[in-house]
Amino acid sequence: MSPPIDARRLGKRFRRDWVLRDCTLTIPEGAIVGLTGANAAGKSALLSLAAGLLAPSEGSIEVLGRDPLREPAVLAEVGYVAQGAPLYRSFTVAETTEYARRTNSCWDEELVADVLTRIASRTKVGSLSAGERARLALALALGKRPRLVLLDEPFAGLDPLAGREFLQLLMDGVAETAATVVIASHVIADIERVCDHIVLLTGGGVRLEGDVEELLDSHRILMGPRRPLGSIRGVRSIVRERYSGRQLTLLVRSDGPIFDPSWTVERVGLEELLLAYMAPERMPVPVPPERLPLRWHG
Amino acid sequence: MIEFHLDPRSGVATYLQIVQQVKEALRLGTISVGDQLPTVREVVADLAINPNTVAKAYRDLEREGLVVARQGRGTFVASTLAPAASLPHYEALRAELERWLETAEGAGLDEESIRALISATLREMLARRVA
Lengths: 298, 131
Hints:
heterodimer; B: mainly alpha; Arc Repressor Mutant, subunit A; three-stranded antiparallel beta sheet; 3 strands; about 60% helix; globular
């Protein structure tokens, strides 16, 4: 089966500015992917390219094994929600779902009704709350029972309660449809709860990509007294070093157990790991991808 | 029915937290053979987590022979971790632990210090046993 998204040296340029460059990645089937990175890191461009709304300036992208521009039929299997969930404000909820039902060959009324519980169907879209509008956009994306769902900053403008509710409905939809999901968000805490795969973009390139569990298993925090750094057994590379007073804290990528008794070794949380890779202070030496189950591009 | 809770700050993978909570409930006898675990969709709706994570936890438990999945009906407890004979001991041990905790509190230890002391002592004891 073709992967949901397969990008090869993908790049996108607006006039002279590259928003995405040399981006190679494969999203595994059934994954819930957190696509993260600072603002303007290229997250929206990547989603727009996958949704067939932009043409690559270089390289290629395949969605479910097909080129979304040359074979737009594949988009019937892709649910895409753009940033801010743009919808027709003067339509009612019922008119919006009716429009979507008629323009999609496959439509799951029951699933849509589940996502829209407690929203009156005669309400105008323009007078929905931010949370309700997000749910309506989600219902439209899930209604066609897509194999791939692309969400661009779905939590922007939602309060924590509405954000949690959105996540619950999304996860329920995933349990029902077994879709692969890519959620672009610059707030790691919003996606940490659900994503099992991470794509971190910095400056338009893939900085870190991989299975969340493997990433957390292969990184450690080391704390100990300040000292000149030699090689530490079990450490492949140092991602970040921090000094405070006489204390030295390292975030390292490990390639084996670290038993050195002069270090206190701890596991690292996803948010801290990603922030360390986002910071430009020190880049680890790239390792040839064939030797690693995970890839990074520095 | 068992209800799961998540501690996102624990650094323990979500699926492992679910596995551990099922095992804990089995050890303490709060669930037993024949009891049904919540369905994947129930857990997902409750905790807003990835359904694959719940499925993975249940698969792990099934591989260990602790639960069994019945097609279209759900996942059921298949065996128990607490030997029935040791269950009465729990009450006595728990009472003893509570007395100890009160002593520790009386000595001025806060929750974090108590946890640190217990886990360090347990770790050292296990290390001695290995050595």
